[in-house]
């Protein structure tokens, strides 16, 4: 039987965060242990009712089980799901339809899929499925997007230490969704800054999942209001939950990649309020 873990985190406003110490900040916003062997692991954030999770099938096939907190007959009864594989080759099966996912491939599953399973092709190199889920008002078609098969952007420069490739694998011009959007940003060698200038989007939350971070390296993730910033040190396969009122930006001790996932009432990827570096405090 699949082991499923669930954690409930209520939304926190900017005034409360001003008084948080390091431990409180990490407890509220850091997802440190999403990827656990033979487990489906979830955090329910209450920001846009967004859920962030991981599924690592090693010795068994894992099932996407419903949760008591969802009050639903099956997990995708009123939800949609985005999946990106950050491990070895694996297969996601949704109501009998199998999707083989290689490293960095993406899969969207629409509302209404009743039976979803996760399986690895090789237990010695298991798939590591990173999961985002948001409420859905409509059932859109399942769709796989191979890495590099979505919309591609090249941004930044080595001069400003932020040369990067943005792979928009799950945005509305690539995949029809209700509100979920996901993609992968890969920093080039010699570049360490992501998402600079920093920005907010008050009608969407966002979660950053950092990976390809070497064991001896780390990322400093910046959050908070533009004039009241805070930071969280992050390591490989850890995520930071970013409320709509918060900026989200990071700087690493080496180049790395991260998955961004967001949900809210606006599917316009470019709807952002930017804050220049010289205005941050």
The CA-CA distance between the termini, in Å, is 49 Å
CATH class: Mainly Beta
**Nearest-integer average pLDDT:** 96
Specify the overall morphology. Answer: globular
Q: Which assembly state applies to the chains in this document?
A: single chain
Largest sheet: 7 strands, mixed
Number of helices: 2
Cα Rg: 18 Å
How many individual domains? 1
The appropriate CATH architecture is: Sandwich
Task: Give the strand order, joined by hyphens, for the main sheet.
Answer: 1-3-4-11-6-9-12
Low-confidence stretches: none
Question: What do these coordinates show?
Answer:
- By secondary structure, the chain is mainly beta.
- It has a single domain (3-279), classed as Sandwich (Jelly Rolls).
- The protein contains two helices and 24 strands.
- It has helices at residues 14-17, 22-29; strands at 3-8, 30-31, 39-44, 51-55, 62-63, 79-85, 90-94, 97-101, 106-109, 116-120, 129-135, 143-145, 151-155, 164-170, 181-187, 193-194, 198-200, 204-211, 219-225, 228-234, 238-242, 249-252, 257-264, 273-275.
- The strands form five sheets. A seven-stranded mixed beta sheet has the order 1-3-4-11-6-9-12, with no helix packed on it. It has a seven-stranded antiparallel beta sheet with strand order 2-21-18-23-15-14-13. It has a four-stranded antiparallel beta sheet with strand order 5-10-7-8, with no helix packed on it.
- Strand 3 (39-44) and strand 4 (51-55) form a beta hairpin.
- The radius of gyration is 18 Å and the shape is globular.
- This is 4-deoxy-L-threo-5-hexosulose-uronate ketol-isomerase.
């Amino acid at each position: 039987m699949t082991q499923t873990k669930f954690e409930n985190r209520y939304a926190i406003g900017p005034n409360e965060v001003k008084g948080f110490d390091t431990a409180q900040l990490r407890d509220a916003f850091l997802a440190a242990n999403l990827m656990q062997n033979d487990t489906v692991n979830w955090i329910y954030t209450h920001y846009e009712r967004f859920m962030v999770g991981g599924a690592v099938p090693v010795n068994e096939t894992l099932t996407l089980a419903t949760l008591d907190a969802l009050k639903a007959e099956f997990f995708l009864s009123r939800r949609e799901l985005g999946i990106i594989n950050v491990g070895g080759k694996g297969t996601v099966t949704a109501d009998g339809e199998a999707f083989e996912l290689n490293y960095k491939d993406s899969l969207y599953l629409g509302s209404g899929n009743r039976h979803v399973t996760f399986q690895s092709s090789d237990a010695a190199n298991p798939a590591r499925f990173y999961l985002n889920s948001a409420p859905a008002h409509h059932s859109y078609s399942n769709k796989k997007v191979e890495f590099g098969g979505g919309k591609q952007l090249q941004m930044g420069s080595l001069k400003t230490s932020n040369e990067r490739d943005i792979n928009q694998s799950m945005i509305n011009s690539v995949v029809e969704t209700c509100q979920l959007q996901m993609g992968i940003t890969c920093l080039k060698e010699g570049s360490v800054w992501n998402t600079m200038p920093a920005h907010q989007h008050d009608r969407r939350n966002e979660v950053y999942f950092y990976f390809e971070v070497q064991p001896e390296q780390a990322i400093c993730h910046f959050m908070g209001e533009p004039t009241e910033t805070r930071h969280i040190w992050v390591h490989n396969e850890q995520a930071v939950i970013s409320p709509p009122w918060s900026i989200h930006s990071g700087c690493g001790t080496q180049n790395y990649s991260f998955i961004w996932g967001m949900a809210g009432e606006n599917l316009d990827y470019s709807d952002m309020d930017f804050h220049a570096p010289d205005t941050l405090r």
